[in-house]
From TrEMBL:
Source organism of this protein record: Asanoa hainanensis
Name this protein carries in UniProt: NUDIX domain-containing protein
Domain Nudix hydrolase as annotated: residue spans: 1-133
Cofactor annotation: Mg(2+)
Pfam families associated with the record: NUDIX
Lineage, uppermost ranks: Bacteria, Bacillati, Actinomycetota, Actinomycetes, Micromonosporales
Length: 144
C-alpha cells in the first residue's frame, strides 16, 4: 500500500498532530499526522492535498520539502510505503475540521514536546516521533 502524509507547520514553527479515534483499526487512539492511502491513479502529492482537506478542512499552500520515504508494517499486518512531506496550509489553524469518527482531538507541538509520541512507542515503534523529528530537522535545514 502506498501512503502520503504531511507534517503541517505553522508560522511559529509548531507541528500539527491529531489523535486517532479509539475505534480505528490501524494505530487506534494514537497521535498522528495528516495523511492516508493513495487512491487508484493518484500521485503522492495528489493524495497529500486530498487528505489534508479531508482530515482538517485546510488546503495545502506550499510543500516545503520531502522529509523522506519509509516502509513499515502496520498493526493490521499490511506493509506500507509512505512518503512524508513538510507543508504549510491555508485555513483557520485554530479550528481544523477533524474528520468525524476518525480523529478526536488535535494539538500543535514544538520540538520540546516530541515526548508526546513516547506513550505509543509500543504500538508504532517510534515511527511517528521519527517522522515529526524529520519534519523539525528539515524546517531547521531550510531556515524557517
Amino acid at each position: 500500500m502506498r501512503c502520503a502524509a504531511g507534517v503541517i507547520v505553522d508560522d511559529d514553527g509548531r507541528v500539527f498532530i491529531q489523535r486517532r479515534s479509539a475505534t480505528r483499526k490501524l494505530f487506534p487512539d494514537t497521535w498522528d499526522i495528516v495523511g492516508g492511502h493513495l487512491e487508484p491513479g493518484e500521485s503522492f502529492e495528489e493524495a497529500l492535498y486530498r487528505e489534508v482537506t479531508e482530515e482538517t478542512g485546510w488546503r495545502v499552500s506550499i510543500v516545503l520539502g520531502t522529509i523522506g520515504e519509509l516502509r513499515y508494517r502496520g498493526n493490521d499486518g499490511l506493509e506500507r510505503l509512505e512518503t512524508d512531506f513538510l507543508i504549510r496550509v491555508d485555513g483557520d489553524l485554530a479550528r481544523p475540521r477533524l474528520e468525524p469518527g476518525k480523529h478526536t482531538g488535535f494539538r500543535w507541538i514544538t520540538p520540546a514536546e516530541l515526548g508526546v509520541f513516547d506513550e505509543q512507542r509500543d504500538m508504532d515503534g517510534g515511527l511517528l516521533r521519527q517522522i515529526v523529528e524529520g519534519g523539525f530537522a528539515l524546517l531547521r535545514q531550510i531556515g524557517l
